[in-house]
Design brief:
Helix content is about 15%, strand content about 40%. The chain is mainly beta.
Length: about 250
């Protein structure tokens, strides 16, 4: 750990970081998004409390992961896949709560239905193959909590070095497994990033408001974007509070 930051090298056979403008067919960005990178760090270590507010469960994280730097270790290569997906989607939170409490009978999503809301459909996916990144992130504490963040940093470092995680990290889709290794230091012996210079245009930053102190299942997505440039194989990610991150409702 250097200056409160942590670096992971992550890799996998396939990845898909879907562009939000593609409504039906999945088409991946050529580089991992900050949102997907944050999910990998969250899968290894996340801490907070859960509490009840009326009928709703609210999560209050002690911190969030701020992605600072993404290094592309292998040039992006695409692969075309066709996959079976169900047409329907799960109902809202209110219905799910009734199912879990037994007040209503749960209704499955049928993979072999014959109407427009059930059954399977084949969809095209333009995914990435043989991806490898080196990601640097930092813990950003939430206000209102007096905690030892040095302890949080030590816990993440211990877990990452031992290969521990709360859930298997993945690259965009859960079936695209991500493997990780903790990088001790950026020494001269570390492999340099790939020779990639590309303007990616507006890239998805995150789908959550990272400034919020409480998160619930009923929260609507909070889409943020930023103008992404890969220079020398490195994507520098601005802080979430930066004016470089375009947020909903802002000019």
């Amino acid at each position: 750990m250097a200056n409160g930051t942590h670096t992971l090298e992550v890799w996998g056979d396939f990845a898909c970081f879907t562009r939000p403008e593609m409504k039906v067919e999945r088409f991946s960005y050529p580089v991992i998004t900050p949102s997907a990178a944050r999910g990998i760090f969250d899968a290894i270590y996340w801490d907070g409390i859960r509490e009840k507010q009326g009928k709703e469960t609210v999560m209050r994280p002690y911190f969030h992961w701020q992605i600072k730097r993404i290094e592309v270790m292998q040039l992006p290569r695409y692969i075309a896949l066709r996959r079976n997906e169900v047409k329907g989607c799960i109902p809202g939170t209110a219905t799910l709560n009734k199912w879990m409490s037994g007040r209503e009978q749960a209704e499955p999503l049928w993979a072999d239905g014959n109407d427009e809301n059930t059954g399977r459909t084949q969809r095209q996916t333009m995914a990435l193959k043989n991806v490898r990144y080196r990601i640097t992130a930092q813990i950003v504490p939430k206000s209102g909590f007096a905690h030892d963040y040095g302890k949080f940093n030590a816990q993440f470092e211990r877990r990452a070095k031992q290969g521990k995680c709360f859930q298997q990290p993945y690259f965009g889709c859960r079936e695209f497994t991500a493997f990780f290794e903790y990088v001790e230091s950026q020494s001269a012996n570390v492999q340099p990033p790939a020779a990639l210079d590309q303007h990616l245009g507006l890239m998805l930053y995150d789908v959550f408001d990272l400034r919020k102190e409480a998160v619930s299942y009923s929260d609507r997505p909070f889409i943020t974007l930023f103008d992404a440039h890969v220079r020398g194989g490195v994507l520098e990610v601005p802080p979430f509070d930066s004016v470089a991150v375009k947020k909903s409702g802002s000019q």
